[in-house]
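seq/struct pair 1
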Amino acid sequence: MAAVSDLAFDPWDQAFVADPYPAYAELRARGRLLHYEPTDQWLVPHHADVSALLRDRRLGRTYQHRFTHEDFGRTAPPPEHEPFHTLNDHGMLDLEPPDHTRIRRLVSKAFTPRTVERLKPYVHALADELVAGLVAAGGGDLLADVAEPLPVAVIAEMLGIPESDRAQLRPWSADICGMYELNPSGAAAVRAVRASAEFSEYLRELIAARRKEPGEDLISGLIAAHDEGDRLTEQEMISTAVLLLNAGHEATVNATVNGWWALFRNPDQLAALRADRSLVPSAVEELMRYDTPLQLFERWVLDEIEIDGTTIPRGAEIAMLFGSANHDPAVFAAPDRLDLTRKDNPHISFSAGIHYCIGAPLARIELAASMTALLERAPALALATEPERKPNFVIRGLAGLNVTV
């Protein structure tokens, strides 16, 4: 076991955030398990370990189904953060069985292969419309004009959120997701709490309206299940809707702009993609691997576990480095090379185990749809200005991506 204080791993350093992959190589060379003092976490950088731990039931996204904060050796969150934690802690991503199983089983009905396949024409038509707008304007910000509105509209359509209300969804989501960074600032917490309270109140009113006039949307479906047998509380409905919106677009938005930024930096691969549209499915997978939208995923140690000869006690926190795992040379040949023809690509950008991304099939459709529309309608798409990367480490993305057509 090693410490990482003398390595280049520094989630608050903008040079590291701009390109963390060389530091990951150092971590992997140093060992399978490294303790990081600033966050008191155990970093896991290798693909085999990350993949196995994501499926290990001795770890959990929460511990509150088994322990109090005190029993687990942790301090309860400050009372003023309550709106955020109430919202976050009732979503299935931060629950363990049996609550996780119950909620996921219900929500998965909205993400069956047949349901997702039925969305394909809508997704492709919307992607085409957004790209047509970008082309008509002679270019613009790929993030604001295409990458962001596409998945936000798709998940809002599924949930049944009126078009007139959708503009506020992305700002709420961004503020809430600020709390998922390592050691978030007090200002970030204030923004997340405010957004959590406002988003929750909005959904509470929408649920009340859907109770009176049900539709074909997912919120109406969640209400029906709740009213039939108390399978979902109202808070679980609210938390599920917020989770689906946040998780349903954050990764797709960032995968889109990270992906095109990678293509612009690898012109040979972009040329190959333009010459052969059949590469789109493998390109989507490779771009998600190459610059991973979610760099780190945390788990609590519920029962003592041993990794590479080191015993990690109950109450500790493990941070699995998805970005590092996706560049592990033990699994990926020439991992730092972008290869859109890569056949063997077991990336873990969608996680694994019981918390595997329920919306992965839909995300793949959205990414392929926007990529195809851009290849067809904007064959000369090019970078206009060097993009600025967001300062966040955990959720990795760009502040914008200005392009010409």
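seq/struct pair 2
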Amino acid sequence: MATLDGERIIVTGASRGLGQSMAERFSEEGARVVLTARDEERLDAVADGLPGESLVAPANVRHADAVDRVVERTVEEFGGIDTLVNNAGVSLLGMQDDRKELTDVTEDEWDTVLEVNLKGVFLFTRATLPHMYEQASGNVVNVSSGLGRHAIGGAGAYVSSKWGLEGLTRVTALEAENRGVTANAIDPGGRVDTDIWAHLPDEEREQILDPDVMDDAAVLLAAQGPDGVTGESKTAEEWEQRLE
């Protein structure tokens, strides 16, 4: 397994779930990790448990000014950015414990999901790429979903956001490929034991994936150099097979 000694990595949605698990693993591999999410108290708790150097930078990914400040603080503290992990995400199922057909989704609900899951990725990517371009290296890792390639009823906002994320990942890869920067998407490969599935009965939650399901694949993607794989979207298991 690759190590990340001294690497500078931003993880959005790092206060819990997949983001927290990846941040912890990055730190164990020697990376300097920037933890960002809205809940500063939870971020501080995560940072306190990390073995390596970290920076807590609370922000709402929907707000450009807040995103820009996270990137600026990262560059000021660590001198640059090697990997951006766009992990922050929400779903109406996680917010309300139920699916909603399109005719029942409010404008505010639609905007919340699309702005967190897609606009937030755009804002962080836009703010980060110039620094990666300047150093002619870097990796953008977008956390996608099987619903970025398939659709189910009752999840219109989430499906739309993840299909959009798949396209944005490919555009990022195309624009960055001659500048030493890779961009890829990673899908856990199934339902993960995070807040999105908190409504499930205990016996069903026991059968879904643990939050560390993407850690190995995320490390491999973060360890890539300018000649690494780019413009692809795979499950965590497929990435491990592809890169190891």
